[in-house]
Amino acid sequence: MIAAILALTLLAAVFGALLGYASVRFRVESDPIVDKIDALLPQTQCGQCGYGGCHPYAEAIARGEADINRCAPGGEKVIRALADLLGREPKPLDEEVGEEKPATVAVIDEQWCIGCTKCIQACPVDAILGAARQMHTVIAAECTGCELCVPVCPTECIHMVPVQPDIRSWTWPFPEATGRRAAAGAAGA
Question: What pLDDT score does 176 carry?
């Protein structure tokens, strides 16, 4: 019994050392600009930009194959952030990808859910919880509002509702320059 434990411990140590060596020796360096671009994207993984998710879109931007104005969920805020990062001029959102909408989250009307699991399969971030022939629900904190679950639902029991702002998502509104303030600023200059 002790010999078996020692043998397993020795094997675990050898394989651990091999994995540690392999992780250092065969480490793949990622492009830092791709990581910075990806960090600015909303991580909805919706594919509205024409790419399979936010990271492939970031790679395409870094290679110069995609423009910075194809992220509908991120909208103007993301376009401006990408323009600042890359030293480009901001552009309006590409009409081909849709229009900017307020943040939403999926809600399942549980009375009508038949447990088909089609929504679970369509969700790119695993925000839907349930099992076959059982009622499903959405983990609101994980839902990105990509709307990919809505068209696959055969009972149309999934609805997108606006996200209510809370302390974590609220931002200060931009000040608006009124005629009085603009005139006062010009007179003082």
Answer: 65
HEC readout, 89-153 = CCCCCCHHHCCCCCCEEEEECCCCCCCCCHHHHHCCCCCEECCCCCCCEECCCCCCCCCCCCCCC
Provide the 8-state DSSP code for 37.
H
CATH class of domain segment(s) 32-97: mainly alpha
Average confidence (pLDDT) over 100-114 = 91
pLDDT of amino acid 177: 52
Would you place residue 169 in the very low, low, confident or very high pLDDT band (cuts 50, 70, 90)? Answer: low
Tell how strand 128-129 and strand 137-138 pair up.
antiparallel
Residues of the chain with CATH 1.10.15.40: 32-97
Q: Report the interhelical angle of 75-86 vs 32-40 (nearest 10°).
A: 160
Round the average pLDDT of the chain to a whole number and report it: 88
pLDDT value at 35 more than 80: yes
| Listed residue (60, 64, 68, 66) closest to 85, CA to CA | 68
Query: What does the DSSP 8-state code read for residue 158?
Result: E
Residue 157 DSSP class = -
Identify the CATH class of 102-164.
alpha beta
Q: The tokens of 14 are what? A: 């050898």
Q: Specify the DSSP class assigned to residue 69.
A: T
Domain limits, CATH 3.30.70.20, in the chain: 102-164
